[in-house]
Amino acid sequence: MARRGDTGSASTDTVRFVLDGEVISLKNPDPTRTLLQFLREDLARTGTKEGCAEGDCGACTVVIAERNGDDLSLRAINACIRFLPALDGKELFTVESLARDGSLHPVQQAMVENHGSQCGFCTPGFVMSLFALYKNPAFDAARRPVRRDIDDALAGNLCRCTGYRPIIAAAGAMYDAGGNDWLRAPGASVPAPPERLAMLADIERDGTLDLAAAGRRYTAPVSLAVLADILAERPEATLLAGGTDIGLWVTKQHRDLADLVYLGDVRELRRIEDSGSHLEIGAAVSLTEATAAIMERYPALAEMFARFASPPIRNAGTLCGNVANGSPIGDSMPALMVLDATVLLRSAAGVREVGLDAFYIDYGVKALRPGEFVEAVQIPHAPASSLLRCYKISKRFDQDISAVCGAFRIDIDGGRVAAARVAFGGMAATVRRARACEDALVGEDWNKDTLDAACAALAADFEPISDMRASAAYRLRVAQNLLRRMFVETTGAGQTTVYTYGRTA
Fold it and tell me: Distances in Å between the alpha carbon of 342 and those of 280, 323, 338, 410?
């Protein structure tokens, strides 16, 4: 076994992470053992609960810390679908980590004082989501989160006792509560105790993590070249990034994944770069980071991305993973498609670029060659004059799968549609552009007659299915009405969004 800090092709078979100020070392753990199983069964940390085993209910929420320069970046994730080896090089906080020296953490104290627990099953998960919000550097006692911030932070936590009101009250009071805020360095706006950063620096890895246990293999390289070589040798290996979909293959489908290759430690894949002509987002960039970068340039996508899964899912999952997975109801792809995004596909033989609208061939079939993987997504800068909208329709506002997701980009020149790109998820076997609708728009005046013709053309673009989420007739009518909604919003007839309707700031 190679030592940490070795370079080149050196490898190790030991996972190391920090828990409660101590380095935990695990030699060849089972690659598909979940963090939740490890906490409850191996460490008897039973505060972390299993409610759904699919990242929906939030009862298993824990917080992961990584070095971010001279500070720690803390984010809530779901332990139920996080494979244990992906914890390597990080720090873990569970609900048992918070109380110290006989004193509750301020988040816990606020929950007590505001009667934020009923049956108590969901409470540890809520506490950990609030802990992540409490440690968010955007907020402190002087800049407190408002109701919308609190709602967003708790979107991944369900309370079956309907106890949300006192939990939200606790979130508003946690900066005033007593307790021991042991993690925050004196005078620092973000948590940065030097000894913590030093411990994480000590367990950083320069070589490949290569595990073998229970008939399974898990390999986590740190360089792009090594990753490409590994996949050239093992093209049938399952690529793992955030695990927000693959985790369910194990917990729900009980699949035996014999060969996993993890992308999350590859440094070149963790980048977000703006070249001046396009935004490039690497395959290991979390959805939280990726969507923030996209929304900075395209604020019209904020509503859809706010409703994309939940914070713990966005903190773990990746944008490129959503694209590579290729679900017909994947929410990021319609927006990326109308923005003319391309995917960079890498293998040991080199790199090629494919338009996202040509990447999906059929249900579950992508334009990927053996040994090839998605290295990055490139999003060209759209003209400032482009009209852009993306809408998600689902049964619940938060934390739900789309029945239909529609994205629209229309360029107007002198009142006439110069260019149009329309794409939908949930309407076909793949996310797909609506070519007939686009043809009905281009070259015509942006008015109600053109709108009616484009809506009628959508019936030629799609023959949607009926399933548990929606009927075929409903899907087609919704798709047409979303285009009408865009027309209303972009012509000034109405500006109320789903996100702001009925919500306080």
Answer: 10, 10, 11, 19
- Please state, in angstroms and rounded to a whole number, the distance separating the CA atoms of residues 88 and 107: 27
Cα(40)–Cα(492) distance, integer angstroms: 55
Instruction: Report the SS3 class of residue 356.
Output: helix
Indicate if 253 and 275 belong to the same structural domain.
no
Residue 179 is classified by DSSP as: S
Pair (392, 333) in one structural domain: no
Cβ distance 168 to 195 under 8 Å?
Answer: no
Contact predicate 402/382, CB 8 Å: no
Residue 85: inside a domain: no
Q: Render pLDDT for 433-483 as a digit per residue (tens, 0 to 9).
A: 999 999 999 999 999 999 999 999 999 999 998 999 999 999 999 999 999
Would you say the pTM of this structure is higher than 0.85? yes
> Does residue 44 lie in a domain region?
no
Name the nearest CA neighbour of 218 among 255, 277, 183, 260: 260
Domain count of the chain? 4
Q: Which residues contact 92 (CB under 8 A, 6 or more apart)?
A: 17, 18, 19, 35, 62, 63, 64, 65
* pLDDT (tens digit per residue) in 60-92: 999 999 987 777 889 999 999 999 999 999 999
Give the domain extent around 176.
106-181
- Do 176 and 212 fall within a single domain? no
Q: Which phi and psi angles does 335 have, rounded to 5°?
A: -65, -45
Q: Please check whether residue 275 lies inside any domain of the structure.
A: yes
Name the token pair of 455.
């809506």
C-alpha distances in Å from residue 183, one per residue of 65, 93, 143, 175, 481? 12, 11, 19, 14, 50
Terminal Cα distance for the chain, rounded = 54
